[in-house]
Amino acid sequence: MVASTVWEILKDAGISPAPERTSSTWADFLRSQADALHACGSFETVTLSGARLYVFALIEHTGRRIRVLGVTAYPTTSWVVQAARNPVMDLQDAGCQARYLVRDRDGKFPELFDTILADAAIEVVLSGIRIPCMNSIMERQVQTGRRELPSAAGLGGRQTPLLLFGNARGVVTGQCSYSERLMPRRR
């Protein structure tokens, strides 16, 4: 049975095949839900001394505001749990109505991470396995960080080690703020 046959049957029965379809568009729906959507992710970079640093960040879908939650050489369970507590307090203080947090299935996230967010009435939505487009806004920012942070640190090319550990958070946070002012995203 084809769609046009179903439409004809519904029309003959006096039933509208798509009630209220014109009242709201998909773009309107996404805009209305954007205030409730946030995403988090992490990426690693290399310091001048050769040590690896892990940057953990959260992004608001509405304005693409990035919150750097932490930079560490060793992402332990307690560090990740504290990184979950920080945005909950920040978002509550800012009056944000976060309802959903999209994250990947990285093993760095302990169960307590999801529990802390659930206690704050934020539902964690896991992206599909090997489907980075489910968290595309955060993945795009991760790629931007990998590409632009070396030049922001004044070190030149992509393969150059990024930063000294003591200055890591300042450079990451400063570059995120600079990117927001320089390249405002669509709202």
Q: What this model shows, in words?
A:
- The structure is a single chain.
- This protein is α/β, with parallel strands linked by helices.
- It has one domain: Ribonuclease H-like superfamily/Ribonuclease H (Nucleotidyltransferase, domain 5).
- Helices cover 42% and strands 18% of the residues.
- It contains six helices and five strands.
- It has a five-stranded mixed beta sheet, with helices on both faces.
- Strand 4, helix 4 and strand 5 form a beta-alpha-beta unit.
- Helix 3 runs parallel beside helix 4.
- The longest helix is centred in the middle third of the chain and has 18 residues.
- The protein is elongated, with a radius of gyration of 21 Å.
- About 7% of the residues have low confidence.
- It comes from Streptomyces fuscichromogenes.
- This is Integrase.
